[in-house]
Amino acid sequence: MHHHRLVIINGPNLNLLGKREPEVYGKLGFEDYLNTLTAKFPTVSFDYFQSNIEGELIDAIQKFGFTHDGIVLNAAAYTHTSVGIGDAVKAVPARVVEVHISNTFAREAFRHVSYISAHAVGVILGFGLDGYELAVEGLLKKL
Ligand code: DQA
Question: Other CB atoms closer than 10 Å to residue 28's CB: what's the count?
């Protein structure tokens, strides 16, 4: 069976998952969730990268975007501000799925804009951490 290489890239403040606004983002830390996620897809090899720094996220998209088949990207607040991250997604051959834990359209108007969506193969939002698993399932069908 073909062994797909995927990377999950999380943006600013997502290192605080489980501690940050648990009523919005849940009580589970991402590293714990990642263990259960990767166990569900034994044929996929996963990498994980998180940064609070916009340029580091762009570097990661550029690096993994040429070595991996797909990227699950939650750029968090930079989703709504970063032309540079949107351009990086557009620039790489890897397929990118945009994920948000919360339903950003049910929140403030500034979260209704995404510089990533137009360059993503799909967008999943509002399903909590399960969105990452749904993104992997969707991505595997697009590879
Ligand atoms: C988020 C939504 C963003 O608007 C917010 O800035 C985040 C997390 C989400 O996963 O719901 O930090 O990307």
Answer: 15
Residue 32 maps to which CATH number?
3.40.50.9100
**Number of folded domains in the chain?**
1
Residue of 37, 14, 32 lying closest to 102 (CA atoms): 14
**Which pTM does this prediction carry?**
0.97
Closest residue to atom 2 of ligand 1, CA basis: 76
Domain range for 102: 4-142
Place of tokens 């990086």: 88
pLDDT tens track for 3-23: 899 999 999 999 999 998 889
Classify residue 19 by its DSSP letter.
T
Q: Which residues are catalytic?
A: 25, 100
